[in-house]
Amino acid sequence: MTRLRVGLIGTGPWATQTHAPVLAAHPDAALSGIWGRRPKAAAELAAAHATTAYEDLDELFAASDAIAFAVPPDAQAPLAERAAAAGCHLLLDKPVATSPEAARRLTAAVDRAGVASVVFFTLRFAPPMADWLADRAEEGPWFTARADWYGSFFAADGTGAFDSPWRADKGGLWDVGPHALSVLTAVLGEVTAVTAAPGPEDAVHLILRHAGGASSTATLTLRAPAAAEGLVLEFRGERGAAAPAGWGASGWGDSTDAFRSAVDALVQAAEGGKRHPCDVHFGSRVTDILAEAERQVAARQDSELPAQESTQAP
Q1: How far apart are CA 200 and CA 302, in angstroms?
Q2: What are phi and psi of 204, to 5 degrees?
Q3: Which of 50, 104, 215, 293 is deepest in the core (most CB within 10 A)?
Q4: What residues contact residue 202 under an 8 Å CB cut-off, 6+ apart?
C-alpha cells in the first residue's frame, strides 16, 4: 500500500508536539510538507522532520493527498475549504469552526469534493478511552450521564497551559465543550436539544437531550481555581453507574497515541470511502450545539443585567 501523503498546516505547540512527530513516524502516512503563518517556524519544524516547508499553500496541496490542521478553528475552516477543493482529504481539529455558517460551508465543500474527513476529537480516538466508550454504548440503555471539565488554564492561579488567544476569548464552552459532546454522544446518541446557563467566570452549564431519550449534563470551564481542577465522566442506568478508572487523574492520556489512531482512521476513510463517525458532519453538528448554547448564555446574561443593577441601587 502506498502511504498517504499528509501535509500539515500549523506550527504551534500542538503541531510541534503531536501532529508533526506522529505524521513523520506513521507507517501508513508520510509527512509531505508543512505550511504555517510564520514561515520561519514552518521551516524549523520541517527541518526537524526531514520534510519541506511551503510558502505557497497550493503547492502544499499539490504535494499532498490529505491535510492535517493544527490552527485556531476560525482560521481552520476557510483553509480546509481550499484543501478540499484541491482534492485533499482532511484531518481537522476540534471545533471545526466557531460559526455554524463557516462549519456548513466547510461541510458543503467536503461533500462537493468527495473527500474523506476525520475530526480529531481526542477522546474518541484515545486508547483505552475509545474502547471504554464503545463498550458503554453496547451496554445501554442509559438513563443519564454527566461530563464535567474543570480546567484552570486561565485562572489567576492556573498554569497558563494552552494559553492561546482563541481559547481565552471563547472559553471552556468551545475548548472543552467538544470533548464533552464527543463522549456523551458516543454512548447516548445525537443531541436533540440543549439548554445552557452561565456560571462564574467562563463556566457554562449544559443540559442535553439525546435521541434515545436519555439526558445528560456538562459543566465546562477553563477558569476554575487550580485546586478545583478535574474531570468527571459518569453514566447511570439499569446496570448502575459507570465511570472510567482513573479518569479524573489521567485525563485522556498521551495525545500522540490518540492522534495516531486518528491518522489510522483517515487512512481507512480515504481508502474505503466509508464515512467516519467523527467526520466533518459530526463536527458541524457540534458547532451548531455550542453556538446555540453560547446564544442562550449571552441572552441570560443580558436579561440578568438590569436585575443585578437594581439590587445594587440605594
Answers
A1: 15
A2: -130, 135
A3: 293
A4: 154, 171, 172, 173, 221, 222, 223
Please name every residue paired with 194 in a beta bridge, in sequence order, or none if there are none. Answer: 208
Residue type, 278: C
- Give the strand pairing for 230-237 and 142-150: antiparallel
State the greatest distance between any 2 C-alpha atoms of the chain, in Å, as a whole number. Answer: 77
Q: Under DSSP, is residue 36 helix (H, G, I), strand (E, B) or coil?
A: coil
Look-up of cell digits 452561565: 198
Q: What structural domains and CATH numbers belong to the chain? A: 4-124+256-287 (3.40.50.720), 129-251 (3.30.360.10)
Chain-centroid distance, C-alpha 188: 18
Q: Mind listing the pLDDT tens digit of every residue in the chain (314 residues)?
A: 589 999 999 999 999 999 999 999 999 999 999 999 999 999 999 999 999 999 999 999 999 999 999 999 999 999 999 999 999 999 999 999 999 999 999 999 999 999 999 999 999 999 889 999 999 999 989 999 999 999 988 877 655 556 688 888 999 999 999 999 999 999 999 999 999 999 999 999 999 999 989 999 999 999 999 999 999 999 999 999 999 987 654 555 688 999 999 999 999 999 987 889 999 999 999 999 999 999 999 999 988 765 444 334 33
Which of 94, 102, 72 lies closest to 9, judged by CA?
72
51: nearest Cα among 22, 28, 30: 30
